[in-house]
């Protein structure tokens, strides 16, 4: 008998999730990430359970389900959940699977209803998910309790600034605890005035042959790609801040997993866009009723905000125009999710938001500017998807495994580039000035690794060590 | 202006003229002459839209959500897209896709103000790089062509796609 070399054996079968995660842990301190993270099927299966099966996942905005009975169909991982406002005004997140045989009971993307009726045998549930009836109940089920036969709710549901999140893990910390330092930054975008925001219609949805983490990685603060991949937007006058200046600002690891980036003017008096480019009459309504003076000041100096709430919820605010010859750039706010759809596919859900107190004209302007730039047909975003497709191709390649191919995430590490950690940043988390920095992504992947390897019931630290 | 006017027969002079126009347009777009299409075939007052669609119950109609779009273009914003593609940094279409417009079931009706209402079925096949599997868009175009100084120009276009989730990584092409 010949002895088998276990290392050889495992590479012939492809790396397991554990092997990829160990490589991630080994590489991260040097700023290296195994390419296989973006394509390995075993890793992906683990993510559905350990990341999407446990973390707080964004599902929608309260303004999408304003009336009693309003519902939208959304996803946690690959599974459908009905997000519905019940007759008492509460928000329920219900697993879209009939108790009887597991059939889908909600077959529309959105609507308004008093109940959901299963098409198979007719079990009927109310908007709280309770089983309220079934055909010929007495003959068929007389004696059986309806209680305990309702639709399965998510373990926990909570909103922050109207943003609805849910988790399947009953042991998950509260949403606010989970968001940690990120709340400070969500406040300064969504809580800028007392009216808050609303979504401008249902989300755009489109599918890319890419891994969901490419979106999370990019929105954690990949500003460096703008100068090359998005060079065309300067040529057509879609964005008002020159590339080099736009690299000035801060990278923030808000708390473990959640990262963001600000393009920021060095001082308040700097000419150019303030408050992400929102018009002055709107900016005049931005106040400190819900946020601090520090938060208002950061927002005032900000030209771009881009961030990712772990795992797959991203936010972007910046000045844009779809037609530079007719309209100067104006502030847009898009929120999106990177819905996993297999190791090599992601479905993007893209919503445009506006502050509720904007005039109809301002809403129209921000919508058109957003649509023409940060949407699947937009001048800014349409280029993003091209490289991500090849990241996932590299991620599933045999060569990446055989060559032990790792990706370089070293920007901003000691001795690499000009970015330096700052200690006078007013917000929570770890901040770096300038944006030539990839600590934001290392933060994403280091929390990701801990989440992927956490035992059931155990949660990784949600605060940085002091 | 509506699309409910009486149809003109297939093979009539007006129908032929419209079909010629649609074929010319498809040829310009398939051959990558977007700037010429924009310049010569598009009205300066164009409203060019691809509405957002959802899967909804039959009683709620076809699922097009009012006032929401994948694309909502004016002459200027279409011009921006054309201009963008002329820069050496329009990676989404450089190297360019192979795009083919199939235009069928052309139904023509006279409308008011020197305009012609046209409904047609559209199938776009797009292949990128070494892909053998095309990206496919099927849908209906509802156009108004208006006679401006003797030539027909595209004045209104609504593209009603048969998809709710778009199965392609971007909309860098023209419908
Ligand atoms: S599966 Fe739903 S009623 Fe039987
Ligand atoms: Fe980008």
TrEMBL record, chain A:
InterPro entries the UniProt entry points to: ARHD_Rieske_2Fe_2S, Rieske_2Fe-2S, Rieske_2Fe-2S_sf, Ring_hydroxy_dOase_asu_C_dom, Rng_hydr_dOase-A
Molecular-function annotations in GO: 2 iron, 2 sulfur cluster binding; dioxygenase activity; iron ion binding; monooxygenase activity; oxidoreductase activity, acting on paired donors, with incorporation or reduction of molecular oxygen
First and last residue of the signal peptide: none
Similarity field: Belongs to the bacterial ring-hydroxylating dioxygenase alpha subunit family.
Domain Rieske: 57-154
SUPFAM superfamilies, sorted: Bet v1-like, ISP domain
KW Cytoplasm (keyword) present: no
Keyword Zinc in annotation: no
Domain of life: Bacteria
One Pfam family, short name: Rieske
Protein name per UniProt: Rieske 2Fe-2S domain-containing protein
UniProt entry keywords in alphabetical sequence: 2Fe-2S, Dioxygenase, Iron, Iron-sulfur, Metal-binding, NAD, Oxidoreductase
PROSITE patterns per the UniProt record, alphabetical: RIESKE (PS51296), RING_HYDROXYL_ALPHA (PS00570)
């Amino acid at each position: 008998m010949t002895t088998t070399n276990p290392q050889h054996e495992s590479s012939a079968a492809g790396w397991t999730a554990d092997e990829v995660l160990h490589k991630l842990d080994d590489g991260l301190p040097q700023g290296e990430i195994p390419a296989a993270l973006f394509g390995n099927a075993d890793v992906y299966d683990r993510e559905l359970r350990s990341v999407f099966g446990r973390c707080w996942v964004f599902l929608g905005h309260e303004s999408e389900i304003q009336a009693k009975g309003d519902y939208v169909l959304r996803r946690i991982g690959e599974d459908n959940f009905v997000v519905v406002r019940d007759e008492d005004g509460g928000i329920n997140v219900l697993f879209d699977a009939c108790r009887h045989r597991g059939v889908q009971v909600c077959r529309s993307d959105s609507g308004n209803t008093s109940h959901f009726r299963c098409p198979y045998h007719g079990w009927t549930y109310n908007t709280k998910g309770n089983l309220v009836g079934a055909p010929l109940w007495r003959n068929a089920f007389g004696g059986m309790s309806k209680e305990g036969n309702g639709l399965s709710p998510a373990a926990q549901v909570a909103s922050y600034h109207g943003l609805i999140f849910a988790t399947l893990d009953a042991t998950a910390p509260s949403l606010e605890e989970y968001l940690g330092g990120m709340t400070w930054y969500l406040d300064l975008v969504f809580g800028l005035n007392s009216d808050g925001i609303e979504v401008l219609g249902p989300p755009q949805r489109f599918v890319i042959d890419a891994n969901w983490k490419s979106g999370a990685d990019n929105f954690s603060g990949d500003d460096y790609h703008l100068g090359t991949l998005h060079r065309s937007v300067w040529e057509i006058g879609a964005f008002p801040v020159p590339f080099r200046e736009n690299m000035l600002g801060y990278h923030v690891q808000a708390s473990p997993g959640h990262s963001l980036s600000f393009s920021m003017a060095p001082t308040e008096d700097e000419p150019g866009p303030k408050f992400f480019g929102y018009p002055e009459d709107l900016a005049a309504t931005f106040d400190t009723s819900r946020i601090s003076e520090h938060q208002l000041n950061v927002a005032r100096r900000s030209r771009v905000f881009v961030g990712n709430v772990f795992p797959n919820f991203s936010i972007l605010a910046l000045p844009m125009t779809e037609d530079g010859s007719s309209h100067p750039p104006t502030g847009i706010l898009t929120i999106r999710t990177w819905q996993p759809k297999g190791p090599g596919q992601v479905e993007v859900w893209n919503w445009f938001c506006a502050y509720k107190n904007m005039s109809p004209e301002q809403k129209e302007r921000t919508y058109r500017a957003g649509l023409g730039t940060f949407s699947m047909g937009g001048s800014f975003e349409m280029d993003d998807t091209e490289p991500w497709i090849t990241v996932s191709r590299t991620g599933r390649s045999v060569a990446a495994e055989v060559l032990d191919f790792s990706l370089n995430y070293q920007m901003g590490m000691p001795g690499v580039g000009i970015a330096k950690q700052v200690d006078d940043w007013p917000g929570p988390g770890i901040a770096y000035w300038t944006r030539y920095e990839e600590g934001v992504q290392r933060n994403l992947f280091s929390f990701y690794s801990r989440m992927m390897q956490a035992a059931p019931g155990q949660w990784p630290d949600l605060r940085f060590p002091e | 202006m509506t699309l409910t006017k009486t149809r003109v027969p297939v093979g009539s002079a007006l129908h032929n003229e419209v079909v010629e126009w649609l074929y010319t347009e498809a040829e310009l777009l398939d051959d990558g002459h977007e700037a010429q299409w924009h310049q010569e075939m598009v009205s300066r007052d164009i409203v060019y839209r691809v509405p957002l669609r959802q899967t909804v119950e039959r009683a709620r109609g076809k699922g097009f959500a009012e006032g929401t779009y994948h694309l909502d273009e004016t002459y200027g914003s279409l011009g921006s897209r054309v201009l963008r593609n002329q820069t050496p940094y329009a990676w989404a279409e450089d190297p360019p896709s192979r795009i083919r417009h199939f235009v069928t079931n052309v139904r023509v009706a006279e409308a008011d103000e020197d305009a012609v209402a046209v409904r047609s079925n559209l199938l776009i096949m797009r292949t990128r790089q070494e892909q053998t599997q095309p990206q496919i868009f099927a849908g209906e175009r509802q156009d108004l062509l208006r006679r401006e100084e003797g030539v027909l120009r595209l004045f209104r276009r609504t593209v009603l796609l048969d998809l709710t989730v778009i199965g392609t990584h971007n909309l860098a092409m023209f419908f």
